[in-house]
Amino acid sequence: MSFTTVNYPTEFKGFAISDPSEWNHPKLTSYEPKKFEDHDVDIEIECCGVCASELFTLKNEWSHDDMACKSATVGPKTQCVGHEVVGKVLRVGDNW
């Protein structure tokens, strides 16, 4: 397998929600990338989708049931969703 050498950005941008009542009005937000570690995989994302579970999270609807995931209530205030991604692997950590 071959990997591409790239210059990594000092920030990422994504559409995020800060208020569950505004779940359908995402705003472009900047994030600082975390340090790449031995258990990480770096993927250049070409496209991503948002599934129904993420909409429940954005709307803070998980907090109305007995599920452990209540991130909109007790987690980060700003959430950038989209875990269904298609992309190209750029780098793999040593523990893979």
TrEMBL record:
Coiled-coil portions: none
Protein source organism: Cyberlindnera fabianii
Gene3D superfamilies: Medium-chain alcohol dehydrogenases, catalytic domain (3.90.180.10)
Name of the protein: Alcohol dehydrogenase-like N-terminal domain-containing protein
Domain of life of the source: Eukaryota
Domain Alcohol dehydrogenase-like N-terminal: 38-95
Xref: InterPro entries: ADH-like_N, GroES-like_sf
